[in-house]
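SEQUENCE-TO-STRUCTURE ENTRY
===========================

Subject: a protein chain together with a token-level encoding of how that chain folds.

Sequence line: the amino acid chain in single-letter code, read from start to end.

Question of interest: how does this chain fold, as expressed in backbone structure tokens?
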Amino acid sequence: MQDNGSHFTKPTFLISLVIMIVFLIIGAAFTEQFAEVANTVFDYMTTQWGWAFILGVSIFLFMSFYLLLSPLGEIKLGGDDEEPEYKTLTWFAMLFSCAMGIGLVFWGVSEPIWHYMWPAYGEANTVEALHLSMRYTFFHWGLHPWAVYTITAGALAYFSYRKGLPMLLSSCLEPILGRKGIEGPWGILINVIGVFATIFGLATSLGLGAMQISAGLEQLFGIPSTPGTWAVVVIVVTIAAVISTYTGIDRGIKWLSRINFVVAIALMLMIFIVGPTLFILDIFTHAIGDYLQNIVSMSFALDPAGEGAEGWAQAWTVFYWAWWIAWAPFVGTFIARISRGRTIRSFVIGVLLAPVLVSMVWISIFGGAALYHEHFGPGGLSDPVAADEAQGFFMLLSQFPAVTLLVGLGMFSVTVFFITSSDSGTYVNGMLTSGGDINPPWQLRITWGVTEGLVAAVLLYGGGLGALQTASVVAGFPFMIIMFLMLYCLMKSLMQEREEGSLPLEKKRIMDTLNELKENRK
């Protein structure tokens, strides 16, 4: 058995930790300059490279459907006789809680209201703006983001469980790097980029969660939601996440995810029943059709003439696609870790289709109730959302009876989403920096858990939501390039396996022997 202490001397761990320490020192010492640089970088990345994010994520979606519908979907992520490690409901609860929980709670109300105030085109605060708001919210939380996770997680699960390689992002490039190159210089670079993207993508969501919890504290107890409060919330919840990560996946993450899944469903049912039920059903049905009818045009929309809603695509779609890509190493690795034994087809159905339906239901209930309140009711949500997006969710809950109960459940749900996201992020970084150990030592997990919390606190204190968005965009771009290489290697290996599967057994053995000899010569 490998000594746990040896994990702390691995190049990926040392390089990643040094980069994070330098970042923390600069961010804490030069707060104002950091915020200015963050805004400049964000503007450059979204305006100059927005087209790359738009095209890239659309390609990932197309290839995800190809994996679902083609004969390649019959291949298992593991041995031919292996069964799934986790039951379907538990598996789904874990991947959903760790993938999108915080974001959906944060933006489920605020994004539809924002699109109602600032639509992609046309006049604000109109019937057309109301319809557009749900269409684009479905778009931003629909098939495209989950396709990013499908490609990353599918490639990693295939090369790890089917090919017997370490649980490393660099393993997905084995057809290019070779087995020895996985932990060589190029492999280290790829895994360091994965750690970088994971920490900053996760810090964005942890920051959103801290802002949301602070908004709930302000709603319940009158505690002002300030950067100082955000930092305290990050510290407290990071401590809880560290305790959770110490208990392991089968106790900490699994049980918290199960509990929170039930709480989230209960909260949805409450708002659905006491809210504008008929309007929610109507807008859910209308928005699905609107989304599916316009998905192609939305997938490639950038407003190149710069007329109408200037900057809208960069502020929303480009930011979201970069955010999902920055999350891909973290979420993809975690989904791969819990998906052993499933066929590619069942895997894609679970990762690509099922969560999209749940997301649409959530957005229709909370976003639909908010739009009804704003368009047909007394209003009053637009100004708080425009001033602070974190206020939207709890401002909506305050419009219903039993405010304390609803806000309390909402805060509990956000907090658990916060903990499970941070907890699973520590596992991922632990795996990436320990040579692919699927059960990295608790000392390593705690190290990354503390680092994630510190990065989120520095970003929040140094620039709030703007700094968080910048971190996501900057971290997402280099990993998008890696994702294209992962997709190429995955398709090459799957096609090769499919062809070899139809060969006579004796010929297949000869080919395997020749491939092994070639590898040994390298």
